[in-house]
Amino acid sequence: MRSLILLLVLGALGGCMKTSDLAAGAEYQLRDVGVLDHSETRRSASWRLQADSFVFIAQAHYTPPGGAKPRPNVVADEAFKAFVEYFPLVRRSPHPLGLDQAMSAAREAGAHYLLYTRFAGADDRIGTVEEWEDEEALDRLGVDTGVVQLMLIEISTRYLVDTARIRNRGGFLTLYDNQPADQLRAPFEQYARTLLGVSER
After folding, report:
1. Is 121 helix (H, G, I), strand (E, B) or coil?
2. CA 144 to chain centre
3. Quick check: is 23 in a domain?
4. Do residues 76 and 115 both lie within one domain?
5. What is the predicted pLDDT for the residue at 172?
6. If DSSP codes are grouped into helix, strand and coil, which group holds residue 192?
7. Which candidate in 68, 127, 138, 156 could, as Cys together with 122 as Cys, close a disulfide (CB 3.0–4.6 Å)?
């Protein structure tokens, strides 16, 4: 009797949802409870870009507090890798720039928009044996976290189209040998999709 009820419940669920929807729901729950990497993006506007918009990406001169020492241009690099999947016209600065320098470089490149980013915070917790041997602090064990701030500026008018704040948190299953910079690409892909109005995969 119990097997029959279980079979009926599974059949009802299977009829209501596709397998991909069940998998996506399970992944969301695992991210939410901290088993997998999790990110949260808060935007100030719901502005959308045309698919043929030319986006120039640059990163500010800023070393985030929190003990991590990310590569100088890592945010721009990861944003570029994400945006190039969705926008055919994307370029990035090869090194950090001030805002005025970034605007000039974007204008010279003929870009429509500047995506100006900053690694505002990065906490690289102990996640390997080597890191434990270096620090040996129990309060430093745990998942990595990071905060990225960004501005989307229209080049021709210098109008601030959007600002956003991305908070990243590592997951228990991705704890080993993970850095705050390793968590950047997925939220930038999600941000690029929202700029285009593309639904989640």
Report:
1. strand
2. 14
3. yes
4. yes
5. 47
6. helix
7. 68
